Amino acid sequence: MPTNPGIKSVAIPNAAHHLMSKEAKRLKLSQADYTAAAVSYFAQRGLNPAETESREGQLIMQQVKKLGDRVFSYMQVQERSVLIPMLDEMLRSRITLERVLRMNEILVNNLSTGLQQLSEAQLKQQREALLKLRKQNEEMIEAQVREAVASSKIQQGQTQQAGAVGEKSAANY
After folding, report:
1. In the chain, at which end, N or C, are there fewer CB atoms within 10 A of the end residue's CB?
2. Is 173 a residue whose pLDDT tops 50?
3. What is the DSSP string of the chain?
């Protein structure tokens, strides 16, 4: 029996004692230090040393599961902060485009009917007005594109921050 109250003795089979002694000597550890390290290793990882299954495989599977959880969490953050708003905007654009096309159809029909009744001077005046309107429209489109690009850059910065938060929260799992 050991005299030190901080040390306990355990009876182990001779074969296990021989392996422990051999490995402790190879690693230049005392038998007590080697045994304490081995017990800590299994306890901290929640492993059962009596199982015949590969302990390394269990550790790898645990790490893969944690990584999968992190990836899934990151994907959820991306879906909420990027993909759903993008889909919403695409749908809104599609509906708007279809409405504009329908309105153009109606306007072209009305315009064709009206143009047949105009004189040559009136037609020239209408062409000039149309050119002016086209130029204004192109300027407005350019301004909207610049605004959308600037807004996209701002949202991209916010999304990157949200993704970093999602990664941090996923890392805590």
Report:
1. N
2. no
3. --S-TT-------HHHHHHHHHHHHHTT--HHHHHHHHHHHHHHHT--TT--S-HHHHHHHHHHHHHHHHHHHHHHHHIIIIIHHHHHHHHHHHHHHHHHHHHHHHHHHHHHHHHTT--HHHHHHHHHHHHHHHHHHHHHHHHHHHHHHHHHHHHHHHHHHHHHHHHHHHHT-
